[in-house]
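At this stage, I wrote out one protein, both as residues and as discrete backbone shape codes, and that material follows here.
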Amino acid sequence: MTLVQAQIPEGEYRILRQRSEESGEPMKEIIRKAIHAYLLEDRVDPKAEIFKIFPLGASGKKGHHTARDHDEVLYGPARP
């Protein structure tokens, strides 16, 4: 591991210390988790099923029933 130092505002430090005391988790572990969450890739797959259901709503046209039947459109027919 590499040691990293940073200066943070006093108010943020107090909140961090309070969360550490409440959870029993060391501050350094809370900071590691925060950095990890920040660095995780947050990508959207444009081919995901959710993007295939647009336009939403009932336009009166055949097949435009997504607003009403969204679960079935996303996950398939309901199982008995």
In short: The mean pLDDT is 83. Helices lie at 10-23, 27-39, 70-75. DSSP finds three helices and no strands in the chain.
